[in-house]
Design a protein that fits this description.
Layout: H1 3-16, E1 29-35, E2 40-49, E3 52-61, H2 64-77, H3 82-97, H4 118-141
Antiparallel strand pairs: 1-2, 2-3
Helix pairs in contact: 1-2, 2-4, 3-4
Bound molecules: zinc ion.
Zinc ion binds at residues 35, 38, 40, 62-63, 65-66, 123.
């Protein structure tokens, strides 16, 4: 089995049996994302407790790449600190730019082939953009938020 076949299998396996799919009523971060070019939609739910991502779930529909990426991402970030989740975001963006897969990406390395198809990169990064937005918003909710005149 070639690496491409293996990667395809990992993606299709996550697409047909997505992990962490569904609502998260106890969550405190909810972000919607859409990739209109492909018709992908994702709603990401996080339960962030202090600086730890206790739970991550997603709802949505779209192509196999968008849904498999969301499935793998929610697996990868569960139990991680916010800082670790942000390192994963950076590592995944690096992968999409052509970097060698970082060890911490695990199964997510299966999405490396997507970068050969620029229009599909947005499918793969949809849930990651939502994650970054969610973490940013959560940080903004904290008591440490400095008052700004822009508010
Ligand atoms: Zn897509």
């Amino acid at each position: 089995m070639s690496l491409d076949d293996l990667y395809r299998e990992v993606i299709l396996e996550h697409y047909s049996k997505p992990r962490h799919k569904g609502a998260l009523p106890e969550g405190n971060v909810h972000v919607e994302g859409a990739n209109p070019v492909c018709g992908d939609e994702i709603t990401l739910h996080l339960l962030v407790d202090g600086d730890v991502v206790r739970a991550a779930r997603f709802e949505g529909h779209g192509c196999s790449i968008s849904q498999a990426s969301a499935s793998m991402m929610t697996v990868a970030i569960t139990g991680k600190t916010v800082a670790e989740a942000e390192r994963l975001i950076a590592a995944f963006k690096g992968l999409m730019r052509g970097d060698e897969p970082a060890d911490e990406l695990g199964d997510l390395a299966a999405l490396a082939g997507v970068r050969k198809f620029p229009v599909r990169v947005k499918c793969a990064t949809l849930s990651w953009v939502a994650l970054q937005q969610g973490l940013d918003e959560h940080r903004g909710d904290g008591p440490a938020r400095p008052a700004t005149s822009e508010d």
